[in-house]
Design brief:
- By secondary structure, the chain is mainly alpha-helical.
- It has two domains: 5-71, 3-Layer(aba) Sandwich (Glutaredoxin); 82-199, Glutathione S-transferase Yfyf (Class Pi), Chain A, domain 2, CATH 1.20.1050.10.
- The protein has helices spanning 5-17, 36-41, 61-71, 82-108, 130-151, 164-178, 188-198; strands at 49-51, 57-59.
- The protein has a two-stranded antiparallel ribbon.
- The longest helix is centred in the middle third of the chain and has 27 residues, at 82-108.
- The structure holds glutathione.
- Glutathione is lined by residues 4-6, 28, 33, 45-48, 60-61, 117, 120-121.
Length: 205
């Protein structure tokens, strides 16, 4: 399993929908995403990027998921009616902005290979800022506490059904593990939820 969280979010989304899409691996460590060939595909130099049959490219994880959901609404992962769509989007944003981003801020500003690549994609000339790493870590801990509280009375993050918010959170927590940040023992509701979503077949994507 490749752990870069954003491409994995799309792979899990695809697996949940039962969609078979050709996957092309881009080596971020070697800067393949910043090379001429990939920049022709996505000038921002970020993954995931989806290529359609007519040669159109679509980037941004959530945009790709939204496109897929429009074409393949079942099983539904973005909400079914006005309210559940709004709630799912809000939860997804909370996880992304309060959890994944701070965690990645921590990662980008501590991982030695990215000491000159503090921001994903282009331009690739931002030096790491240690204070951002420290702030990211503190924000991530707060996010996990809030997530645990929410899961005390919600089966899944956005409500009764599995959604994109759960996918983002699973990829976040698994990436934290790669960074040797373990799910704290006392976050029992988050643990119950994590064990549940991790046992889904899609989680191995
Ligand atoms: N907001 C973008 C973020 C994409 C992103 O940052 N992807 C990372 C991989 S998880 C990347 O492309 N990194 C490129 C790099 O490290 O230069 C999305 O959700 O697609």
């Amino acid at each position: 399993m490749q752990m870069a969280p954003n491409p994995r979010r799309v792979r899990i989304f695809l697996a949940e929908k039962g969609l078979d899409v050709e996957l092309v691996e881009i080596n971020l460590m070697e800067g393949e995403n910043l090379g001429e060939d990939f920049l022709k595909i996505n000038p921002r130099g970020t993954i995931p990027t989806l290529e359609l049959d007519d040669g159109t490219y679509l980037d941004e994880t959530v945009a790709i998921c939204r496109y897929l959901e429009e074409l393949h609404p079942q099983p539904n992962l973005l909400g079914t009616d006005a309210l559940s769509k709004g709630q799912t989007e809000a939860c997804q944003r909370h996880v992304e902005f309060d959890g994944l981003q701070p965690l990645l801020e921590n990662f980008r500003n501590t991982f030695p290979a990215f000491s000159e690549r503090g921001v994903p994609g282009l331009p690739a000339e931002y030096k790491a800022i240690p204070e951002l790493a420290e702030r990211g870590q503190r924000r991530y801990q707060l996010f996990m506490k809030n997530l645990n509280d929410r899961l005390a009375d919600h089966k899944f993050i956005a409500g009764d059904t599995f959604s994109i918010a759960d996918i983002t959170a699973l990829c976040t927590i698994d990436f934290a593990k790669v960074m040797e940040i373990e799910l704290a023992e006392d976050l029992t509701h988050a643990r119950r939820w994590y064990d549940d979503v991790s046992s889904r077949e899609s989680a191995s994507s």
